[in-house]
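Researcher: Structure for this, please.
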Amino acid sequence: MSGTIPPDDSTGDGPVAPGGPLDEAKLRKLKFMMALMSGFLVLTFMVVVAAFVWRLSGSGGEGAARVALPAGHFGASRIAVAPGERLRSVTMEGGRIAIAVGSDNAEAVIIVDAKTGQELGRIMLTPMSGFAARE
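Model: Predicted structure, token format:
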């Protein structure tokens, strides 16, 4: 013996000749890796589609102040009304609520967002000085 070991391909760990058949262990490992990569691709595609739908639905948030509440409810909102003012009417149109309040001295219309309950603004109606009333 000269001290060299002749090549033995019976372990299945050696290189495969091009065009040669794969043994059972390598074929099983190849099938497992293909299934793993396919599963990863499907999962990644599902995440991308879910993110796309989430963005389109508007859940991306238009601000950090918006809180997720049940559909049709915006919680309790406080609308400031001056002492002595009384509610005259409430009208809802186009996602806005118009609240008409008034007292002996002035009238106001309060505009509120129907989805969030936030006051968007006020329209103060004050009497004009020097305006003659027609009879």
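Researcher: Any notable elements?
Model: Residues 100 and 109 are 4 Å apart (CA to CA). The two ends are 132 Å apart (CA to CA).
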